[in-house]
């Protein structure tokens, strides 16, 4: 008895792409079939062994071959080269509504899918009520599924897949369509299947979710495996590649954004902010900030005359529009003294608490009383925040906190 649930040995999948495509029936009749084609290898020489009872993840950018690989494992596609062996009953939730007949009701599709998976009528009948309850679609179960929303498709599809007693469960990114409450229910059920010793193969772009769920992960790039190993290690490698690629894309757009001092801005103009740059504590340029690492904003300014103790304020705004916080030197107890001509102000965001996402910086400069606006620069800088831990997080900031456990009742005074 093998301990491997799914084995892929040098598996490749080739598709034929027609370069000179005929887009209408008239073109096909007049010009005939396209004679120009080329091979496209969606998966190339992939060898993976997935142990029984493990949770195995696949990551990579869109178009890297993840879904094609899942379809090869589930038998939807046949490999062009190589061999695939699966040991046990397999259920797959790969495409939205795949396996559902649109004119049949939800209840009829439950029975149809059970028959396709090889379950007996008794096994299907025993699972039907649990499937309906889990999906939360009892009042719609006798409606044709063609009238279901995308979220209802996912609810029914996932419920059928996990309740048909599979030995191997394959789940694609379609779970992202479900609402928050259903996603949590699905995650809990995946953990229960894991505890029951079932094999789960999952594709997701949620790195934090995969890191907490998976034992091992394979990272695909252009149809080829880049790395396979422990979830945390592979996710870190993948995120490093993503960050490096982002650095290359942003190379042409310097993080030192500038604006002509004569541009139309609010304020008296006695001081103008010339540039703002994202840097680390060693003052080296950054293309993104890291959650938990100190981030420096380097501002270069010019004062047309001697100004006593200006108050520089930075407003940090999330890309969704919400104001996250405001920072200013007066409130933090820093007096800039008398400034004149060119000068630089460093603003260090200690142990950056911002969660992954994109943020904007707006700059205001006031006089020492805070009553007179000297300069205003909206959208001075836009920058991404990343996390080496891979999680997306909810909200905008990660607050320092500590959990403690007490086994005795809390005493109230």
Describe this structure in words.
By secondary structure, the protein is α/β, with parallel strands linked by helices. Helix 3 (106-116) crosses helix 4 and helix 4 (121-135) crosses helix 5 (150-163). Strands 5-6-7-3-8-9 form a six-stranded mixed β-sheet, with helices on both faces. It has a five-stranded mixed β-sheet with strand order 12-18-17-14-15, with no helix packed on it. It has a four-stranded antiparallel β-sheet with strand order 10-11-13-16, with no helix packed on it. The longest helix is centred in the middle third of the chain and has 19 residues, at 231-249. It starts with a strand and ends in a 27-residue tail after the last strand. Helix content is 24%, strand content 35%. It folds into two domains: 4-227, P-loop containing nucleotide triphosphate hydrolases (Rossmann fold); 257-386, abc- transporter (atp binding component) like domain (Coagulation Factor XIII, Chain A, domain 1, Distorted Sandwich).
Helices, strands, pairings?
Blueprint: E1 4-18, H1 25-31, E2 37-51, E3 55-59, H2 66-74, E4 81-86, E5 90-93, H3 106-116, H4 121-135, H5 150-163, E6 168-171, H6 180-195, E7 199-203, H7 207-213, E8 216-221, E9 224-230, H8 231-249, E10 257-258, E11 271-279, E12 289-290, E13 295-308, E14 311-318, E15 323-328, E16 338-349, E17 357-366, E18 373-386
Parallel strand pairs: 3-7, 3-8, 5-6, 6-7, 12-18
Antiparallel strand pairs: 1-2, 1-4, 8-9, 10-11, 11-13, 13-16, 14-15, 14-17, 17-18
Helix pairs in contact: 3-4, 4-5
């Amino acid at each position: 008895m093998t301990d491997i649930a799914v084995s892929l040995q040098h598996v490749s999948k080739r598709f034929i792409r027609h370069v000179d495509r005929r887009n209408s029936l008239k073109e096909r009749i007049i010009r005939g079939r396209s004679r120009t084609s080329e091979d496209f290898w969606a998966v190339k020489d992939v060898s993976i062994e997935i142990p029984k009872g493990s949770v195995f993840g696949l990551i990579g950018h869109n178009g890297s071959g993840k879904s094609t690989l899942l379809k090869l494992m589930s038998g939807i596609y046949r490999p062009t080269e190589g061999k695939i062996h699966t040991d046990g009953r397999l259920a797959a939730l790969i495409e939205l509504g795949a396996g559902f007949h649109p004119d049949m009701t939800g209840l009829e599709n439950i029975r149809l899918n059970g028959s396709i998976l090889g379950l007996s009528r008794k096994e299907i009948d025993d699972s039907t009520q649990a499937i309906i309850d889990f999906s939360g679609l009892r009042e719609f179960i006798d409606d044709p599924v063609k009238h279901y929303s995308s979220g209802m498709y996912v609810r029914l599809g996932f419920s059928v897949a996990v309740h048909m007693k599979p030995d191997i469960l394959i789940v694609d990114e379609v779970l992202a369509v479900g609402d928050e409450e259903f996603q949590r229910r699905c995650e809990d059920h995946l953990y229960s299947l894991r505890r029951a010793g079932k094999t789960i193969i999952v594709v997701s772009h949620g790195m934090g979710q995969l890191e907490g769920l998976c034992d091992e992960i394979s990272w695909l790039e252009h149809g080829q495996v880049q790395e396979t190993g422990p979830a945390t290690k592979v996710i870190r490698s993948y995120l490093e590649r993503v960050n490096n690629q982002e650095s290359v894309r942003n190379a042409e757009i310097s993080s030192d954004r500038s604006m002509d001092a004569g541009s139309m801005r609010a304020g008296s103009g006695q001081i103008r902010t010339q540039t703002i740059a994202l840097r680390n504590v060693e003052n080296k340029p950054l293309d993104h900030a890291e959650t938990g690492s100190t981030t420096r904003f380097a501002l270069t300014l010019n004062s047309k005359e001697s100004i006593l103790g200006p108050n520089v304020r930075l407003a940090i705004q999330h890309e969704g529009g919400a104001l996250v916080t405001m920072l200013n030197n007066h409130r933090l107890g820093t007096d800039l003294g008398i400034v004149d001509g060119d000068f630089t102000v460093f603003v260090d965001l200690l142990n950056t608490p911002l969660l992954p996402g994109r943020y904007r910086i707006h700059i205001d400069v006031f006089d020492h009383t805070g009553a007179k606006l000297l300069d205003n620069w909206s959208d001075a800088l836009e920058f991404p925040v990343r996390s080496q831990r891979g999680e997306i997080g909810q909200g905008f900031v990660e607050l320092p906190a500590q959990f403690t456990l007490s086994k005795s009742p809390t005493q109230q005074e």
